[in-house]
From TrEMBL:
This is Hydroxypyruvate isomerase. InterPro entries: HyI-like, Sugar_Epim/Isomerase, Xyl_isomerase-like_sf, Xyl_isomerase-like_TIM-brl. Pfam families: AP_endonuc_2 (PF01261). Keywords: Isomerase, Pyruvate. One of its GO terms (molecular function) is isomerase activity.
Amino acid sequence: MNAFTLAACAEMTYLDKPFLERVEAIAAHGLNVEIWDWTTKDLKALRATGVPVVSMTGYIEGDLTTDAGIARLLSTAEESLRAADTLDCPVLNFHGTGLGDGGIPVVANPNPTPPEWLRAADTCRRLAELGEKAGRVFTLENLNTALDHPGCPFAKASDTRALVAAVDHPNLRMNLDLYHAQIGEGDLVALTTESLPWIGELQVADVPGRAQPGTGEINYRFVAEAIAAAGYRGNVGMEAWATGDGAPETNGSTAVSDAALEAFVRTFTVILD
């Protein structure tokens, strides 16, 4: 038996296919599916595929610290929970603030004040309580600020862990994204091991390029074996662009995506004794 359950993000692979066909292609590799913005999807048609959707974005707009942002975050989280009911999706992902075009934070705030930390923890607690009522888990994702999300508050994995640990609620967990963590913090095995009590899922992509494991500097096979030995038994999601050695316009194609998912499965198959 594999130490992990595996999933792939349908927003980043099989880009030459319509969305529902992407989902079915991912499932053909024995993987579950993750999605981003549920508001752009035909949820009933997605549920009818029979492919488990194990993670989705858990809000539409909002942030953790401003009055208007908190109200909007909680309101759209409730909308997202209703969408999660349609999909029977167990995990809803959120960030320190809403992200606009190109991943730029809607509310840039790279250095939150102590009162803002307290407000953020209280907002996370309220999300956890919404999740508890609905039987779902909200996961707070770390993001890198050096490249993809400059100015995002509560962005480091150490930040997300601090908030999740402060709330200490089973319906609030970390989405530990190792791509973002490699850029922002490094030392991935120690980071994952130290965060084990708080992790709701792991997401992976290589650096640079945010492509599938094996295309960059991270020794993901070493990471997979080490975190399995440390006791992680949850979901690992490939949130990565499927890329190959051909022309850029072929990236995301069926052949390239097939090879990317096969590499991901090989890397993160760690058989338990």
